Amino acid sequence: MPNFTKGTSPVVQQALKDLEEEPKTDYLNLPPPVRYEDIQREVMMALKPDVFEGLRFEITRPLNQNFFLTHSLFMGNLELPGAATGSKQMLKVPVGTYEFGANLISEKGHFALGRITTDGRLSGRLKYDFADWLSSRVNMQLSNEAGQSQVMGDIDVKGKDWNGQLKLGTPQFLGLNYFQSLTPSLSAGGEFFWLGGQLRSGLGLALRHTGQQHIATMQVATTGILSAQYAHKVTDKVTLATDLLYHWASREATATVGYDVTLRQARLQGKIDSAGVVSCYIMERFAPGINFLLSAELDHAHKNYKFGFGFTAGE
Amino acid sequence: MGITSSKADTAPPPMPNFTKGTSPVVQQALKDLEEEPKTDYLNLPPPVRYEDIQREVMMALKPDVFEGLRFEITRPLNQNFFLTHSLFMGNLELPGAATGSKQMLKVPVGTYEFGANLISEKGHFALGRITTDGRLSGRLKYDFADWLSSRVNMQLSNEAGQSQVMGDIDVKGKDWNGQLKLGTPQFLGLNYFQSLTPSLSAGGEFFWLGGQLRSGLGLALRHTGQQHIATMQVATTGILSAQYAHKVTDKVTLATDLLYHWASREATATVGYDVTLRQARLQGKIDSAGVVSCYIMERFAPGINFLLSAELDHAHKNYKFGFGFTAGE
After folding, report:
1. Which of A20, A153, A161, B246 is at a distance of 20 to 30 A from A60, taking alpha carbons?
2. Where is the signal peptide (chain B) (predicted)?
C-alpha cells in the first residue's frame, strides 16, 4: 500500500494504522451466519416481551434429565374487536384455560414437545438432526374444529458460510430461504414464499451487520414491508433496541424503542412506540426456581389497558 | 299490735349452697358467677353506631378487590391537610344482557382522581375528590358537641339525575345512640341502638324512599366478647343476615357471614380470614356462590405498599386480577 501518512491528520494516520494491523479478511473462511428466521431475534427479544392480561401460573416439573412436564394455568381476558359486537370500544371476555405439556429433550439436541389445552387444542414441536448439516423441524397446531389445524415442516441445510431452508405447510404453503456471509460482520440473503389457497407469493431480501456491541438488520419484501432494526449492547446487563416498520402500500410507519435490563434478581423489558403503546414486563426471582411476573400494556390511542401478574415455578 | 317491718326483712335471702354433691365443673361455674362483677345496668358502656354493627366482619370479608392497575400517592402538606393522587386503569363490566350476549363483557377505562383532605385535631374533617370524568365527591364531618355530631356525604356529577347528597345527625347518649339521615332524592332514615348488657346491644332502623314509595323497618342484635363479635339483622325488605367474627390471635381473624333473602329463598354463606403479618396483610374469602377472592397488601418500604388482588367467580367464569402501588401514609 502506498504511504499516505505524510501530510495527513492524526485521525487519518490512526485509521490507516488500524487498517494495516487488522487481520486480512479470509473470504474463504467466513463464519457461518444465523438462520434466516433468527435475523431479528436479538431485537425481538428486547422489543417483544410476552405481555399478557390476567393471571398466569406455570409449573415445570422435571421427571428425569430428558423429560419434563409443564402445567400452565391462565385466567384472563380475550379481546373481541369492537366491530364484531357493533360498538367502537374494545370489549373483553374473561376466559380460563389449563394447559398440560410434556417435553422430551435429548442430549444431541433433538426434542419433542407437546401441549394440550382444556379446549381440545393440541400443539406439538419436533426437531431432529439427521446430520451436522441437515436438520428438520415440524410444528403442529391441531384442533377439533374444522379448518383450524395447521402443520408446518422445515428442512435446514447448513453449509460452511451459508444456510438454506425449505418450509412446507398446510394448507398449501411453500417457503424457501437462503442466507450467506459476505464478510465476517455482514451477511445477506433472501426468501420466497407461496400460499396456494390465497394464490399469493412474495419475495424478500435481508441484510444483517453485527459488531461487538451492536446488531443491525434490514429487510425488504414484496408484500410491501420495509423494516429496519438496531440493537445495541450498552453493557452486559443493558440492551437498547429500536425498530422501524414501514408499509409502503399504505404509507404507514411504526417506530419502537425499547430496553432490556438484566439485574441480579430481576429482568425488566420495556418499550414505547409511535402508535402510543407503552408496555413493560418484569420477571423477578423470588427464590431459586420461583419467578414472579408483572406485565402491563397501555394502548393510549385505543384506550386499552392490559395488566397481568403471574408465577412460574421450576426451571 | 301493728304490722312491723324492718329493713332486714326486705333483703333477699342468701343463695342456698348448691355445691355439695355437684360436679367440679358446676362448682367452678358457680364460683365464677360469684366473683364476676355484678352488672350495673345504670352504667352500661356505649354501643357502636348502628352503621358500624357489622364493621369488623365487613373489614375481614369485603376486601377492596379491583381489576387492573391502581396507583395512589398521598402527600401531606402540613399536619392537617393532605393531597391524594389516584390513578386507576382497568376494566368496567357491562352486564351481558346490555349487549345482547350471555357472557360478561368488559370495557377498559382509565381515570385519574385528585383529592384534598382537611382533618382537624378535634376530629372534624372535610374530604373532596374529583375525577377526570367530572364527578366530585365530598365528605364533611362536624361535631357540634360531645353528644351531637353531623356528617354530609355528597356525590355530584354533571349528568342530570346522577347527583346524590346524604346528611346524618348523630345523637349519642350514655348507653344508646340514635341517628337521623336525610338525603336526595327523598330519603329519610332513622335508627336507634341501645346497650342491654355490657356485651349485648340491640336496636332498630326505619327508612323511607319517597321516589319509589318504599319503606322498611329493621332490627339488629350484637353480642361482643373478648374474642368474638356476633351480629344478626332482620329487615322487612326481606333480608335476614347473621355474622360472626372470631379473633383467633391478635394477628388472625376469621369471619363468616350468612345472608338469606326470604322472599326469593336464596342464601349466601361466606367464610373469610384476615391475617396481619409484619410486612403484609392478607385477606381472603370463599363463598357459596362460587366466588373466591384474595387481597394482599405488602409493605415494601415505609410508606410504600404493593397490592395484589384476585377474584375468581367460577359460577359465571369471570376472573378479575389487579395489582397496584400506594405511596405515602
Report:
1. A153
2. none
Span B239-290, pLDDT tens digits: 999 999 999 999 999 999 999 998 889 999 999 999 999 999 999 999 899 9
| Nearest Cα residue in chain A from B94 | A91
Assess if residue B271 is contained within a domain: yes
Beta carbons of B44 and B193 less than 8 angstroms apart? no
Interface probe with B: pick from A56, A93, A265, most Cβ of B within 10 Å: A93
More confident residue, A81 or B119: B119
Mean pLDDT score, B15-29: 71
What mean pLDDT, rounded, does chain B reach? 86
Question: Hey, which residues 50-109 in chain A have their CB within 8 Å of chain B?
Answer: 54-55, 75-77, 80, 85, 87, 89-96
Ranked by mean pLDDT, which of A142-146, B106-110, B168-172 comes out on top?
B168-172
- In chain B, the largest separation of any two C-alpha atoms, in whole Å, equals 97
The ipTM of this complex is 0.74
User: Of all helices (H) and strands (E), which one includes residue B176?
Assistant: strand B176-183
Q: Does B318 touch chain A (CB under 8 A)?
A: yes
Å between B322 CA and nearest CA of chain A: 7
Comparing CB atoms, the residue among A76, A294, A298 nearest residue B323 is A294
Neighbours of B113 (CB within 10 A): 17
The pLDDT value given to residue B329: 64
The stretches in chain A having pLDDT less than 50 are 84-86
A266 Cβ under 8 Å from any chain B Cβ: no
Q: What is the CATH number of the domain that holds B323?
A: 2.40.160.10
Cis check: omega of the bond before B63, within 30 degrees of 0: no
Cis peptide before A49 (omega within 30 of 0): no
Do the beta carbons of residue A173 and residue A182 sit within 8 Å? no
pTM above 0.80, yes or no: no
Instruction: Give the span between the Cα atoms of A122 and A237, in whole angstroms.
Output: 37
The residue type found at B317 is: K
Tens digits of per-residue pLDDT, B74-104? 999 998 999 999 999 888 777 655 444 556 6
Contact status, residue B178 vs residue B189, Cβ threshold 8 Å: no
- Residue B117 C-alpha cell reads as 383532605
Residue B141 domain-assigned (yes or no) = yes
Spatial contact of B303 and B316, defined as CB atoms under 8 Å apart: no
Percent of chain B exceeding pLDDT 70 equals 90
Q: Give the DSSP per-residue string, B261-304.
A: ETTTTEEEEEEEEEEE-SSEEEEEEEETTSEEEEEEEEEEETTE
Instruction: Select from B46, B61, B110 the least CA-distant residue to B271.
Output: B61
Q: DSSP 3-state assignment of B82? A: strand
Q: Which three cell numbers stand for residue B155?
A: 356525590
**B322 in a structural domain:** yes
pLDDT in tens, A91-119: 778 888 899 999 999 988 899 999 999 88
Could you tell me the residue range of the domain that residue B258 belongs to?
59-327
Average pLDDT over residues B194-215: 90
Q: For residues A186 and A211, give the distance between their C-alpha atoms in angstroms, rounded to a whole number.
A: 9
**B71 within a domain of the structure (yes/no):** yes
Euclidean distance between CA atoms B272 and B255, whole angstroms = 5
Q: Are B57 and B257 in contact (CB under 8 A)?
A: yes
